[in-house]
User: What shape does this take?
Amino acid sequence: MNELQKSFAGAARISTTATPQTTAGGRSALTPNLAFGKTGNHIWIIASYADVADGAIYSGVLACGAYQPELFDFCEEIGDIMADWAQGWGRAANHGVWAAIYWLPPHWSGGRW
Assistant: This one.
């Protein structure tokens, strides 16, 4: 995580959520579920299909709303669209969805990866 933050050289704030997962050996490990962040003109959310299946996409929606409270409804709509895109993919974790939400003027772009 620190390496990812450093790679943006202070131009963006990077955040992730994590949930514990148990391995076969009974040890617990944290794995990233969702990436989101803010740059000078937009907020971005990246989620694997497994993240969306787990409901983690809404952590990104909440972060988006925290970064730009006046756009919360817009952020929520984008989160719903991303969740719709992930329908039927189950926990296929090697691909997912992304969105960038811009505030001047409010618009967005996104897709699958």
Notes: The two ends are 21 Å apart (CA to CA).
